[in-house]
Amino acid sequence: MIVAFSISPSGGDERGGVSEAVAAAIQVVRESGLPHETNAMFTNIEGDWDEVMAVVKRAVDVVAARSSRVALVLKADIRPGYTGQLTAKVARVDELLEG
Prior knowledge:
The protein has a four-stranded antiparallel sheet with strand order 2-3-1-4, with helices on one face. Strand 2 (36-38) and strand 3 form a beta hairpin. It is an alpha+beta fold. Helix 1 runs antiparallel to helix 2 (49-64). The chain has helices at 19-32, 49-64, 85-98, and strands at residues 2-9, 36-38, 43-46, 70-77. The chain has a single domain, classed as Alpha-Beta Plaits, CATH 3.30.70.930.
């Protein structure tokens, strides 16, 4: 499965920034060893259900340690029997665009 998720604390720093809390969450993802990528809006992570959800929970927990309220947006592509789709899905579209 691939999960795209975004975690944010309810409040930011003195300028309204949430970078420190988000960086802590992304560090959890990076340390998980699962395939992942981060962009300006979401972090995508690939693995089986239990692996991915455990990482998401740990990421939420590190943000919750910095804020009394946490927002989580999560979207999942659940396709049993398929792996490597984090890059393969993009490659298929790129092939069509180049073709």
